[in-house]
Specification:
By secondary structure, the chain is of the alpha+beta class. The protein has helices spanning 24-30, 43-50, 102-118, 148-156, 185-190, 194-205, 218-232, 239-249, 262-285, 292-316, 353-367, 389-395, 414-423; strands at residues 10-11, 17-21, 57-65, 71-82, 86-91, 123-126, 133-136, 141-143, 160-162, 173-178, 208-212, 253-261, 322-332, 336-344, 372-377, 400-403, 407-411. Helix 3 (102-118) packs parallel to helix 4 (148-156) and helix 6 (194-205) packs across helix 11. The radius of gyration is 26 Å and the shape is elongated.
Amino acid sequence: MILKYNEKDIDRGSDTMIIKELNKETFQHLQDQYPASNFLQSAQMMTVQERTNRFSAVESLGIYREGDQEIIGQVILVYRKRHRFFTEALALHGPLMAFDNPQLVTEVLLAIESYLRKKKVATFSFYPYAIETVRTADLEPLLDNQLSATREAIQGLGYKASFDPMQSTIVNTMFVKNLSSYSSVEDIHEAFSPSLKRDLKKFSALAVKVEELPDNRLDEFYQILQETGKRKGFAVQELSYFQKIKESFGNQAKFMLAYLDCQEYQDYLSQQIDHFETLIDQLKNGLQKKRTKGQIADAQDQLNSYYKRKEQFIAMEIEGDKLPLSSYLFICTDNEVVSFSGGNDERYMNFGGATLLHWDMIQFAFHQGVERFNFYGTIETDDARKGQGNFNFKRQFGGELQTLPGQFTKHLNRFYSLISNIRS
């Protein structure tokens, strides 16, 4: 799309680039055309940020080449106060542009810097949404230093690079499953490991089901998220933040719940108990063979396990027909479905709610023609070797561990630089 602009609206940020404010409608119309497009750099997320108190200001900008009316990049900038008197600007997973072109990146950054200096901004940080390294699910290297020339160009402009392994500010390591090579959902399932196939079959048989929560039930998602945050030690935004996401993204924000159908589960247990009681009677009263004694013992073990499950379920004293197991928020764009936030009720992990829930959304992404299913922020890769951690859960579905470049920061005000150096 060729976007027209008026001379009075533009800022000549450098010799080659022009910066222009974009309204949200225009920004949203164009935001999915970039390889680096993502939900944080979206008009919908801008609306969420405007309605929270996290940032002092938010704005959306278009980037043009001098003498050309075609847009070549976009960015949503958020602003916050630093050291009381200074302003910091951040591009969270932005700008939207071709990061594999070092010359273009240089020109765009110079234009943004010029624009920010005129606004008296003291420091600027950006977090590119571009893949720098790729490893397999077994952590074997596939691609490395994909943005070495771009990184060199950025640092040549005076930007300081940093990388937070705990991803406390923003995600920089993601586990992604590419769906473009599959011709059907059945093909995706067939590629799973035998253990995952067994688990999916088992959890479905246990009457675990998945549903999308309506707007008036987001508190069910939030309760599970809060419990998970307390257990794992991470901070959780207030409920109103997630309500704003739903209001802004609409059907693109899916709050999904995996739950146990209590009546169906009890029926399942009763059926299994009846089955093994009958089988044991048949074996005891039938023709005795060498294997019969062992078959009876195996059947009795199975029967005892179902007796125990039934006793445990009764002891839970569950009220209602549905037992919440796991809940996640998925944000859907044209390019990917992102498992953004969520968790599990630790007491019921054995029902596999999160496993079935993510499999359900992988199928949804495929049917929508989306090429990437993004499990998003991925840590605890070292624990995977012990069969633990969130990476170990994600990699069972197959995919790649993709790492972004991290954070680049440049101080635009020498007094701010002095204060920052003193306080660091």
